[in-house]
Amino acid sequence: MRILIANPNTTEAVTRRLVETAAPAVAAGTELVGATAPRGVPYIASRAEAQIGGAVLLEMLCERIGTFDAAVVAAFGDPGLGGARELLDVPVVGLAEAAMASALMLGRRFAVVTFAVALEAWYAETIEAYALATRSAGVFCADRPFTDLEGVREEMADHLVALAGRAVAAGADTVILGGAPLAGLAARVHDRIPVPAVDPVVAAVKQAEALVALGVRKPVAGTFRRPPPKRSTGLADALARRIGENAP
Amino acid sequence: MRILIANPNTTEAVTRRLVETAAPAVAAGTELVGATAPRGVPYIASRAEAQIGGAVLLEMLCERIGTFDAAVVAAFGDPGLGGARELLDVPVVGLAEAAMASALMLGRRFAVVTFAVALEAWYAETIEAYALATRSAGVFCADRPFTDLEGVREEMADHLVALAGRAVAAGADTVILGGAPLAGLAARVHDRIPVPAVDPVVAAVKQAEALVALGVRKPVAGTFRRPPPKRSTGLADALARRIGENAP
Amino acid sequence: MRILIANPNTTEAVTRRLVETAAPAVAAGTELVGATAPRGVPYIASRAEAQIGGAVLLEMLCERIGTFDAAVVAAFGDPGLGGARELLDVPVVGLAEAAMASALMLGRRFAVVTFAVALEAWYAETIEAYALATRSAGVFCADRPFTDLEGVREEMADHLVALAGRAVAAGADTVILGGAPLAGLAARVHDRIPVPAVDPVVAAVKQAEALVALGVRKPVAGTFRRPPPKRSTGLADALARRIGENAP
Amino acid sequence: MRILIANPNTTEAVTRRLVETAAPAVAAGTELVGATAPRGVPYIASRAEAQIGGAVLLEMLCERIGTFDAAVVAAFGDPGLGGARELLDVPVVGLAEAAMASALMLGRRFAVVTFAVALEAWYAETIEAYALATRSAGVFCADRPFTDLEGVREEMADHLVALAGRAVAAGADTVILGGAPLAGLAARVHDRIPVPAVDPVVAAVKQAEALVALGVRKPVAGTFRRPPPKRSTGLADALARRIGENAP
Amino acid sequence: MRILIANPNTTEAVTRRLVETAAPAVAAGTELVGATAPRGVPYIASRAEAQIGGAVLLEMLCERIGTFDAAVVAAFGDPGLGGARELLDVPVVGLAEAAMASALMLGRRFAVVTFAVALEAWYAETIEAYALATRSAGVFCADRPFTDLEGVREEMADHLVALAGRAVAAGADTVILGGAPLAGLAARVHDRIPVPAVDPVVAAVKQAEALVALGVRKPVAGTFRRPPPKRSTGLADALARRIGENAP
Amino acid sequence: MRILIANPNTTEAVTRRLVETAAPAVAAGTELVGATAPRGVPYIASRAEAQIGGAVLLEMLCERIGTFDAAVVAAFGDPGLGGARELLDVPVVGLAEAAMASALMLGRRFAVVTFAVALEAWYAETIEAYALATRSAGVFCADRPFTDLEGVREEMADHLVALAGRAVAAGADTVILGGAPLAGLAARVHDRIPVPAVDPVVAAVKQAEALVALGVRKPVAGTFRRPPPKRSTGLADALARRIGENAP
């Protein structure tokens, strides 16, 4: 099985880190392939950037149709996930969604701990969009600037552990270390956090494997069937083709 | 006051109809200007199309910054609205949002009545995204195909009136005739619907006027302040410039 | 268009202030007329007082039927609003309702900031009654006594600005300055509050204008149609007449 | 212990029926006293009528302060209950509230079955106001006119039993026969309804007894403490006196 | 009327205290009988212990069928309540459920104040299971160890009063002193708590009386009818018999 | 990795079927071991039976501590799951919980389709207990009796497919075939259901694998840490020992 890790951010180093973090967790026979957004921002942190990044993600996926058995939307916040699920015939999961689904089986309430205040609104709206606010203990954001995106994981490690402690005091049974640049952090600090710590990309590849193992079909009814074909103007070729074609 | 009616669909005839429908409702001194998406689909009807259309909308708005006092996202479902509100310094409202806000003052529950089943999921998720499901009596969709987008308003009028009746029987105190191509229908059929019928584009321009009259400022705190400036790659010029610049 | 600003409190100075605050915001052709409760309390601040004031409001409105095109229930908390909407054939909006509807288009969560602790329960229940608690960041009340009702706006200004700051820190994207005696404060302090500040009476007249512009009809079905006629005993003449008559 | 059954409707026959229905259910030593609204409508069935009736109820209670140990607001929908609870020093319960509280202990979801469509909106809003919608299977209303209020209980009995059956099919574990004129019906038909049938006035007097037995105090904090004293104009003497006096 | 107070904990002293606390509150003619779990833990404080204790409770009740007119599940958290309500033909109420139902009639939000942090999760989930979280101001737990279960009521009294004060500051209109070992405390401290204090076992016996007075029948439809008879293996005799027999 | 499939029902044939259904889906290196309840009922279908079965499950798990890396509570409805998660140091997942978590990634709303009306209440309460009602389109139950438990899967196949169709019409994006005796059905009928069909035991083993792959620790804080040790009376040896011992 081949899982595409599609990063709607433009930072290739983060894509590599996501693949490296997830690799040890996959089953024998699962191959991970990374892809990085050809345009957009280094890391998505606002509604505007998610709107743009999600549209780019759809192009990335459509260009690669037929080369993967499942896909991961590799930005916490899952930009473009709903549209991707409509357009593709294979399972697609998001980092945020997969981490939360896993966290539901580890405790009553989960907290999302992340590295920048700017992410708070987007993450909180993601939780609400999935109708999981009742299961959430909140989004806990580092309150200080970081030096560079690739180093934020190491630079912030102690601070994020402290934030996780605050999240637990506020009622969290589980801590999700959200934000693609934090991939790999959970394994490094999980003995310093008193509750289960979830690494979203690990959760996502395992959830993708699970959906493939379930053998689920592409819906031909319901809200995630392929939308009716539609002509378009000025869109990227692969995306336009996919939008324009009839479901088989 | 100049209000930009920004249509994230590519159908210019719909943009014209929106402006014509709203024109008689505005106050003396309000000018309406239409804009139509330069790329995308003729009418957005799925999550994927909304993802794309919302990104195009951000470009359209950024290209016109400085030429309007308020903007209307002129597709029911409001693609890109959150991001637009972050990026712009003037009020932005969506057709769906404005219609629902108005409907809240006309009764306990509103229904959305529209012309295609394909729109159901997107509209329902929009209502949920605004946390207004408790105030909704549901989305009621025509169950038959239509001939062409520009004529759907006339072709479907009788059927939509019948659907509105069903919505009222299901508990609706108000009916929103959702979908940009239906602009102007409410005025034509409101005496055949036993409860208030809301035309979203009329609601939207009036809500835009109201926000301007309130004299509200651009937030410099909270989740709709301008996001921190960020470099980007490959985005449309005006959009890249706006994302990259410091808030004044 | 003539809008009646019906104050269910007995303080005429507040009625005058409401009219003066709203006047600059209305469209050309809109006329504002104030009315003050002939009996009741100087300002409503409890459930009991709202129960009484709302009943008086119904009398005030019925006595003036035919002289206005829309009405504003001019106490934040909207006493009697539901009943007024049943009995009248023209749109009726409440200060609280209109301010919240406007705030929905300015951010994710709004806070209500007000001048007396005694108001907290009533305001909080109003938000819940409109099913908008998910969109609320709370009610923030001044924790100190004020000297006199007419001067509370000036006396409390600094304190309310500070409270607004606390509301923003608690997650508010928008601040509603609630309580009729605060009318006009938003314009004076909005540059000291880092998010949009909503003046309820301005919101209310603009929402009333919007509903008239929408051309909505009096419902003859749904829960806000005129209740069946009923004989009564001992009620004020105009109210008894309205309750007793058939809808046209 | 003396319990006042305060009927905010003007129909004395209903007051008598309420007392007669509840009498066999009270404990030794409990005395029931009825009171009927001196003005208002024969039976409250709309928001407007509830607004008025609730204000009259406050007068009725204040005029009788000191003569009862607990009070029942004897119209399903509980007009004026919140205000009464603020103003009085003894427990006050409503027919709707007490019936629902009892129903919570008889099953997962309760339905309200009643005799007139006109009551639907008010009853549904009452359930929502108590935040019990999740526990409700809906309000089921007779869809036909009745001849006279005093005979509706007998005239509608068969139809209401059939409605109760529909409510059970829709998921109700318990049926509340709502509406003061139906007092006494539950005992007559409970063997024809396959789930527990709750008579609101019986529930209410038992809940009043329970609150007295609990020995609960008048709050001096929280939202049901006595509101601060306030001068008023033109209100009924006893009510004005109560609103104007300091809590002891 | 005979009410069985069935304690799913193994501590007989607590059973005695429950009976003694409730005795003065019951009506003439009501007899209270205690029963203590023959196996299990001294006091239930976790989900695991509630799972076990609830199963023992079902045995206790089935062994006594025919000897009582109503039963009280006498551990706050109500282990086994749903199953008991299915299996028995007479009303069954839980301490938590009854206390909350009573509290609903005393204010907007109730708080549960209790003697051990270990109880927090179970109590919070109980509130959620009853869909009453909107009416709750939270669970407030003593943050210090206690010497012995029978003395915790006296030892903790001052601390619990202080916690109650904090609960009121956090928005509670009513305080429930939860946990069977605290039976009788409310009466001793209610003048030191500024809002009504509810003693769960008093609430429970009064609610049991109320349900008997309502004359409600055993459902033969809905989700609390007797489950279809089923053969079983290895269960306690009385329980196996009850599960195996047809409803009459 | 060894996963224990612990069936709280007494039917060994169902345990075998669960293992056989899940076996093809697990990763290389995962071993499945079944265990069947030594006492209880053939299949749990009511709250009472779940209360008992959940207590037996805790015994089953405690007797096998140290022999598995993760456990599955193998009855849809997940009896005893919360307690098991407290007591064990390894991940525990329930059939219902795992199926729903997977379904969250396949669409907006899921439906549970099952073979007996008796299961409806228990399943519906399970969905509510996980706070996932917003994501549910309902529980759809076969309305006819079945001949024997082991054959119900084949006997009911056509009827359940039809029910799934009804669920989709009612808004389900995904169908969960709930009830342990239906294990293996999804694979046989998934091409006759127009949306993804989830087999709970497949979901459960994959979720168990995912949690092990995540490397999550046993919490030492939050609500799923081991409860404080407690002496007990009369419980099964292994369970008593586990409850009585200190967490390491």
Secondary structure blueprint with pairings:
The structure is a homohexamer of 248-residue chains.
Chain A: E1 2-7, H1 12-22, E2 31-36, H2 47-63, E3 70-73, H3 81-87, E4 92-94, H4 95-104, E5 110-114, H5 120-129, E6 136-141, H6 152-155, H7 157-169, E7 174-177, H8 185-189, E8 197-198, H9 200-213, H10 237-244
Parallel strand pairs in A: 1-2, 1-3, 3-4, 5-6, 5-7, 7-8
Short characterization:
With about 250 residues, chain A is an alpha/beta fold. Chain A contains ten helices and eight strands. In chain A, the strands form two sheets. Chain A has a four-stranded parallel sheet with strand order 2-1-3-4, sandwiched between helices. In chain A, strands 6-5-7-8 form a four-stranded parallel sheet, sandwiched between helices.
Shape of chain A: globular
Q: Determine the CATH topology of the largest domain in chain A.
A: Rossmann fold
What's the N-to-C terminus distance of chain A?
Answer: 22 Å
Quaternary assembly: homohexamer
